[in-house]
Amino acid sequence: MNLLAFCRAFFRPVAVALATLCFTVHPAANAADLYPSRPVKIIVGYTPGGSSDTVARLLARNLQLELKESFIVENKPGAGGLLGAQAVAKSPADGYTLLMAISSHTILPSVHKKMPYDTEKDFLPIATVGTSPNMLVVRTDSPWRSLADFIKAAKAAPGTISYATPGIGTTTHVTAAMVAQAAGIQINHIPYKGSNEVMQSVLSKQVPLAVASIITAGAAIRDGRLRALAIVGPERSPLLPDVPTFEEQGIKGILGDNWLGLLAPAHTPQAIVSKLESTIKGLLAQPEIQRSLEAQGVAPQFGTGAAFGKTISRELKVYAELSKVTKFGG
């Protein structure tokens, strides 16, 4: 065998093996490098102007700048966020349809006996972005100047005072149900499709009271149109330091310090999820974005996908037990 024939015989199998390896490894190895190659939709399960919508639009603008591709926010309101989540759960697992979720995501299974998706199995957590606690708010011309005033009025006329929230099974609904149980009062729930409608209903005097996050009601409180009677949390929020907590006013154990986070359909390639997670982490480290979130009523708080998944699992169990006691699904 001459030298040329030897080289052909020896190196051809090696070349074929290397080519095969490149073609089998290349797509997975470069999935993150090629993403995104077309516009990405971020679904929000509520009307424009609410907490998840506000943060989704801020995140979309900055992801677009960072990843050089369009990120478009699409609102699919209804059923306390369920319709938007359902749309994402049924979407292709390719990273081009994402869900901006809030804490209500883990409450819905305790409200609806038959869910159109599995809250854990049908989604892949990407990252958390921040938190925004709930508050009990009234107009500034309300006779209730404190939480004690409101509770006294509710006890004097059981079942006659109505309150607004963005929907059944939202964190605001749970907060109100817990307050009612802890204070021993009966109040009527009026659910709307989104936070914007809740604010309009209170400001236009359709309802005297609402439960809303800092994102939703913070601006109206600062400009004097609304008064916050109490806020959820172990201590006062630095975003509204003059608002007392439920805790310091004697109403303990109230939940509603909402997280906001991004989810993908289950089975989305891990390389894409990891790229989004690391990009969001970098964005949240920027002082300008931190200030933008705080201006919207959100305390910036990055959480990994793994930590986010544990939070979801834990809250599903907590709210399932809580629903048996407070009956917030009713």
UniProtKB/TrEMBL annotation:
The protein's organism comes out as Candidimonas nitroreducens
Query: Which Pfam families has this protein been placed in?
Result: TctC
Hey, which family's this protein in? Belongs to the UPF0065 (bug) family.
InterPro entries per the UniProt record, alphabetical: BUG, Bug_dom1
Q: Which PANTHER family match?
A: BLR1237 PROTEIN, TRICARBOXYLATE-BINDING PROTEIN
Q: Which residues form the signal peptide?
A: 1-31
**Gene3D superfamilies noted in UniProt:** Bordetella uptake gene, domain 1 (3.40.190.150), Periplasmic binding protein-like II (3.40.190.10)
Protein name as catalogued: MFS transporter
- Keyword terms: Signal
